[in-house]
Amino acid sequence: MRMVDLIEKKRNKEKLSKEEIDFIIKSYTAGEIPDYQMSALLMAIYFNKMDKEETLNLTLAMRDSGDILDLSEIKGIKVDKHSTGGVGDKTTLVLGPMLAACGLKLAKMSGRGLGHTGGTIDKMESIPGFKTSLSMEAFVKQVNELGIAITGQTGNLAPADKKIYALRDVTATVENISLIASSIMSKKLASGADSICLDVKVGSGAFMKTIEDAKKLASAMVEIGKGAGKSTIAIISEMDEPLGLAVGNSLEVREVIESLKGRGPKDLMELVYCLGSYMIKSAKPEVSLADARNMLEASITEGTALEKFKAFVKAQGGDENVANDYSLLNIAPRVIEVLSKEEGYVAHIQSDLVGHASMILGGGRQRKEDTIDYGVGIELNKKVSDKVLENELLAKIYVNDETNLASAIDDIYEAFRIEKEGIKEPVLIKEIVE
Fold this sequence. Notes:
Layout: H1 3-11, H2 18-29, H3 35-48, H4 52-63, E1 78-83, H5 91-101, E2 105-110, H6 120-125, H7 136-146, E3 148-152, H8 159-170, H9 177-190, E4 195-202, H10 211-227, E5 231-238, E6 246-247, H11 249-263, H12 266-283, H13 289-301, H14 304-315, E7 334-339, E8 344-349, H15 351-363, E9 377-380, E10 387-388, E11 393-399, H16 405-415, E12 416-419, E13 429-433
Parallel strand pairs: 1-2, 1-4, 2-3, 4-5
Antiparallel strand pairs: 5-13, 6-9, 7-11, 8-10, 8-12, 9-11
Family: Belongs to the thymidine/pyrimidine-nucleoside phosphorylase family.
Protein name: Pyrimidine-nucleoside phosphorylase
Subunit structure: Homodimer.
């Protein structure tokens, strides 16, 4: 096989076979195909697209390019979830202990954040002593004993995706459904779970800005999961305003603990209950969605989810006292209040602007090598549809280094759109794709 022939084939809108895709991925990962030829192929795929079979074969080839985790020593059905990313998204840290309290096994590999705020790993590292690097033996043992473990991604998980994504990023070929879906699912399939729940975000703070694009991505990923023999479901959820009230690593961990104590924001808990219900049903088909939700709610009211969280933190070297002493989170002591300049109703909160405010304060990374300030961020006091008075509190800014404080304040004012007429509370769960 010659790469130039395969580029020409895709340029002419022809279908690539499994053998051809396997050759491309194996050869490129091994360094036998140069970047300029892979770039040409990616551009041909970008314009001419891939069908469902090609997308599945691409995903499986990328999955097989590195390690595939063997979780067979973990007893029972292993569940995993993935979010396409959003501002204030701390869902995993609320949901994980709840699922474990309900008897499920969450064996999750998570990454660091790039952009708005930290990823799940960054949030957990804001807890003193928390270790996010576990050996495979320790990872399996902890999931068997506690029902939950979260660790950083291994260096050799779907290495083809890492190489291809870096190339897509600099060749303007990121925004293609097949390439996005195969990138996400290759890592999920390599992570070894039996059941995968996907939270596909849509809106101003999400990669997918329209419901049509979100549906296409969700459907593509569900098709891939099922084609690979995994129970897979996608929930499309709104990211037109930040999820919950807290944006920033330590602030979000505090909100996680408050949620496990039964004091979580309405939208965050609605999403957690929706995702969790489907995940329980995937592992226990005999349980109805209504009963699954009752199980999750009971884990909060009975305190079992909070106890799981504390045990999980302790097992990974963190200080479990953080659940009762938020001063251990080292949240920035300087707090700036952003007050409304007018009376009305909150019509919109631009998620990416709130995320940007947190990032420039130090709460996120503009480059992979940037160091995160865990203590900074934004805490909203109003959500979309809320009434607001002139000089009433819109948000609090937690800051250590004031270099970019003025810009962060400007971001928050620009993010809030206040109108005279009230609007309905937004619908959080847009669609379920099975």
